[in-house]
């Protein structure tokens, strides 16, 4: 599982570094295949994807937040995605870029702070 998380994070970082932004990024659009080299991650449903000259931190964060919300939704009804998995993904995404790592760490504190309310909202929507 840790290797699959790292493979997906590395693939997303490579996609962003190449200038590709996936506006519909969610766990259902991430495929992980095991080969003799280990896990390899691929992204699908690229029909609305766009190339930019540079993927800014704001766009990276937006994509990462969307992926994190998707993971939370799929983790229901058991609750929230393990914090260790979320952190492992972010750290693998940042790699050796210390500045990016710190910005992501600060930014993702908000996800933990708001996840209770999102889960409550999803529960109300599915009951109605």
Please work out how many helical segments DSSP would assign: 5
Major sheet: arrangement of strands: 1-4
**Structural class of the helix and strand makeup?**
alpha+beta
Task: Report the mean per-residue pLDDT as an integer.
Answer: 84
Helix coverage percent:
55-70%
- Total strands: the figure is 4
Overall geometry comes to globular
Strand share of the residues? 5-15%
pLDDT below 50 for ≥5 consecutive residues: which ranges?
none
Distance between the termini: 35 Å
Order of helices and strands: HEEEEHHHH
CA-based gyration radius = 15 Å
Query: Sheet with the most strands?
Result: 2 strands, antiparallel
Describe this structure in words.
The protein is of the alpha+beta class and 128 residues long. It contains five helices and four strands; from the N terminus they run αββββαααα. Strands 1-4 form a two-stranded antiparallel sheet. β2 and β3 (38-43) form a beta hairpin. α2 (57-75) crosses α5 (109-127). It is globular and about 40 Å long. It starts with a helix and ends with a helix. The model has no long low-confidence stretch (mean pLDDT 84).
Key attributes of the depicted protein:
single chain, 128 residues, alpha+beta, two-stranded antiparallel sheet
SSE map:
Elements: H1 2-17, E1 20-21, E2 30-35, E3 38-43, E4 50-51, H2 57-75, H3 83-94, H4 98-107, H5 109-127
Antiparallel strand pairs: 1-4, 2-3
């Amino acid at each position: 599982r840790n290797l699959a998380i790292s493979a997906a994070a590395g693939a997303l970082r490579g996609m962003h570094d190449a200038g590709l932004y996936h506006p519909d990024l969610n766990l259902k659009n991430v495929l992980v295949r095991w080969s003799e080299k280990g896990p390899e991650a691929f992204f699908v449903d690229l029909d609305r994807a766009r190339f930019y000259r540079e993927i800014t931190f704001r766009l990276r964060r937006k994509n990462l937040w969307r992926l994190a919300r998707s993971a939370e939704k799929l983790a229901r009804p058991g609750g929230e995605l393990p914090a260790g998995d979320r952190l492992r993904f972010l750290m693998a995404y940042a790699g050796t870029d210390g500045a990016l790592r710190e910005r992501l760490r600060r930014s993702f504190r908000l996800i933990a702070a708001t996840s209770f309310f999102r889960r409550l909202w999803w529960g109300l929507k599915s009951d109605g």
